[in-house]
Amino acid sequence: MLPKSRRIPRGLFKPLLESRKYFNSIFFSLRVAPSDIPRVAVSVSKKVSKNAVIRNKVRRRVYSAARDLIPILTNKLFLLIAKPGAEKIKGRSLKKELAELLKKG
Fold it and tell me: What distance in Å separates the CA atoms of residue 105 and residue 100, rounded to the nearest whole number?
């Protein structure tokens, strides 16, 4: 799991959602906003799965993969929004997709 100091607090979600910088991949959408340290947040809506257990599993997998990618991140806020089908991606393919998406941001 990503350390709490590297996660985005709820209060900073509004500037992220208003940000016009965004990037897309097959399973994720990325919103980017300026910051003093790199921070990551993950949002998984009910469009991905109606089942909360599955949504939480996706969120935990993404946070775990993002933990390994923190050293390559620039000083920005990164909001990863899961798209339908994200519950099927696992392991190395998840890390690879997140690395490519975060490098774009």
Answer: 9
Dihedral angle of Cα 24, 38, 5, 35, to the nearest 10 degrees: -100
Written as six digits, the tokens of 27 are 């399973």
Q: Which two tokens stand for residue 75?
A: 């000083």
- Domain of 9, CATH number, reads 3.30.230.10
Segment 11-29 mean pLDDT:
86
Q: What is the pTM of this model?
A: 0.88
